[in-house]
């Protein structure tokens, strides 16, 4: 391949944050891998083709372990050093994932269903009570629903949710080295205290379950592994689901024919959620991968020694070679095989919970809010300036029609 200049995605500014797809389509037309400068402030190899992305996600020569990045500090004091499965390779990854999957059973997910319904109903009820019929679907719904559920799953007091929102947003979407590290350190300190509390007063939640295992099984998670897991679940399981609910509802509200079709036939619900994930999923890219030896992706040779690779879930899901007419939002299409939940050994194991929340949320919103409509020009909505996570800080809607509510 001829040497390509670095593609400066950061310079594309708000326009790219709002709609990255034309840029990704252009890049894909030139090849499946490009060297890019990200709005997050660093340079990486970005994989934009579907087949190449899928293959890269299960390529054992690409490491998730930060210790394979050039100049990584492997110190116990570094908050990033709290090991968790998403920043681990086998065999550590295999051990950590197995220990958690044992506790994160289908039964535990199913047991959360009544709570998902209850919180959904409460949140919709509160929005409908507003005199002006207006709401911010992120603040009033898409954020608090998964926040309540992940807190319930982990046994984190829901009163602390605002702190979590700040920490997890800083870590995922407003990436700024020093602030993100400070947020992570605060979250870390909080979770250490929480674990002490679980030890003293165990409940039915996941963290208590893991603490209990510790007493029975010496291979069980250590304290720092449990903190790492809790951080991972809070970040991975919370901002992502918020993004699915808000990006997905925006896609639906922008396509009234699809909205009407779904309202008329809720047997389309599962397919609609998959299409929301494919068309408007919240994970722009995978987490970092580092080369441990030279690799060839598409026609690009990438050196070994810790080159940073990001695998583009969002661009892969719009690859016309895999999904015909990929920019069309079509809840009847075969969206299976999308990469919104990743692929390979790190594929999201929270997917059943995310799907449960999305199906419940979307159906209840459509059933209880027959006049639900956007309350902003979709072309002017602000998006977080991140390539790794795609999300909206706000999504103004009208949850019910109010005569003379003005505009
Ligand atoms: C719509 C919601 C969600 C989306 C789009 C999503 C997406 C993803 C993706 C793309 C990965 C792989 C990242 C990579 O390979 O670099 C991942 C991993 C993971 N997700 Fe999710 N996720 C969602 C919700 C959740 C929930 C609700 C939980 C937990 C309750 C969760 C827990 C995890 C964990 C623990 C991993 C790491 C798995 C491993 O390294 O083996 N996620 N997720």
UniProtKB/TrEMBL annotation:
The keyword Iron-sulfur does not apply. Residues 61-82 are annotated as: Disordered. Pfam families: p450 (PF00067). GO terms for molecular function: heme binding; iron ion binding; monooxygenase activity; oxidoreductase activity, acting on paired donors, with incorporation or reduction of molecular oxygen. Keywords: Heme, Iron, Metal-binding, Monooxygenase, Oxidoreductase. Belongs to the cytochrome P450 family. This is Cytochrome P450.
């Amino acid at each position: 391949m001829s040497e390509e200049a670095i593609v400066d995605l950061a310079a594309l500014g708000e326009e790219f944050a709002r709609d990255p797809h034309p840029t990704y389509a252009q890049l894909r037309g030139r090849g499946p891998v490009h060297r890019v400068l990200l709005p997050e402030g660093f340079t990486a190899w970005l994989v934009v083709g579907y087949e190449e992305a899928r293959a890269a996600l299960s390529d054992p020569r690409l490491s998730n372990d930060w210790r394979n990045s050039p100049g990584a500090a492997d110190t116990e004091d570094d908050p990033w050093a709290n090991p968790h499965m998403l920043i681990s390779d086998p065999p550590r990854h295999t051990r950590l994932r197995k220990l958690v999957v044992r506790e994160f059973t289908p039964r535990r997910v199913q047991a959360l269903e009544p709570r998902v319904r209850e919180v959904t109903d409460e949140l919709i009820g509160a929005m409908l009570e507003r005199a002006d019929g207006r709401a911010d679907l992120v603040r009033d719904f898409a954020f608090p629903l998964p926040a309540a559920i992940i807190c319930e799953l982990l046994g984190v007091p829901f009163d602390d949710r605002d702190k979590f929102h700040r920490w997890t947003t800083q870590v995922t979407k407003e990436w700024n080295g020093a602030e993100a590290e400070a947020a992570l350190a605060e979250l870390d300190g909080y979770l250490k205290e929480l674990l002490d509390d679980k030890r003293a007063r165990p409940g039915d939640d996941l963290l208590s379950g893991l603490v209990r295992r510790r007493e029975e099984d010496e291979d069980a998670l250590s304290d720092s592994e449990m903190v790492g897991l809790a951080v991972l679940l809070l970040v991975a399981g919370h901002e992502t689901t918020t993004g699915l609910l808000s990006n997905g509802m925006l896609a639906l509200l922008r396509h009234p024919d699809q909205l009407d079709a779904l309202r008329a036939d809720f047997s389309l619900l599962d397919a609609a959620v998959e299409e929301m994930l494919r068309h408007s999923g919240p994970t722009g890219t995978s987490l970092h991968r580092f080369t441990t030896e030279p690799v060839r992706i598409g026609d690009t040779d990438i050196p070994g020694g810790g080159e940073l690779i990001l695998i583009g879930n969002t661009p892969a899901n719009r690859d016309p070679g895999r999904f015909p007419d990929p920019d069309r939002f079509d809840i009847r299409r075969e969206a299976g095989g999308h990469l919104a939940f990743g692929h390979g050994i790190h594929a999201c194991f929270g997917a059943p919970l995310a799907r449960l929340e999305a199906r419940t949320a979307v159906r209840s919103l459509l059933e209880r809010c027959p006049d639900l409509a956007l309350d902003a020009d979709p072309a002017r909505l602000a998006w977080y300036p991140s390539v790794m996570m795609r999300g909206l800080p706000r999504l103004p809607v009208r949850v019910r029609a109010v005569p003379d509510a003005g505009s």
